[in-house]
Amino acid sequence: MRYVRYFCIAIFAVALISVALANRAVVPLKILPTEVSHWFAVNPQIELPLFLVILGSIVAGLLVGFVWEWIREYGQRAEAARQAREMRRLEREVARLKGEKHQGKDEVLALLDEAS
C-alpha cells in the first residue's frame, strides 16, 4: 500500500511540474476589477508567472476547504469531548461504588469477588 501511495504522489508531482513548465509566461494579477479599482483610486496589480497563480489558487482553495471542514466538525468534536468527560465520571463512580461494596471485607475475598 505504501508503494501505491508513493506512485500516486509521483504522478501528482509530475503533473504539477508539467503544468509549471507549460505556464511560465508572466501575467498581470489584478486584485480588483478595473471598474471597481477606479472607485477607490487604486489599481493593485502584480506580475507573476502563470503557474504560481494556478498553484496558489489550488493552495488557497485547499486552505479554505480545511478551515470550512474544521468549523463544520466542531459539533462532533464537542459531543465526543462531552462523552469522554461523562465516561471518566462514570468510571470514577463505578470505582467508588466497588470500594464501598467491598469495604470491611477481607482483601482476598474482595479481589476474588471483583474477578468474577
From TrEMBL:
- Does the record carry Coiled coil as a key word? yes
Q: Which chain regions cross the lipid bilayer?
A: 48-68
Keywords noted in UniProt: Cell membrane, Coiled coil, Isomerase, Membrane, Transmembrane, Transmembrane helix
Q: Which residues form the Lipopolysaccharide assembly protein A domain?
A: 40-94
Coiled-coil intervals: 80-107
| Pfam families on file | LapA_dom
| UniProt-listed InterPro entries | LapA_dom
Q: Which GO terms describe its molecular function?
A: isomerase activity
Example GO CC term: the record gives:
plasma membrane
List the protein's name: Phosphoribosylanthranilate isomerase
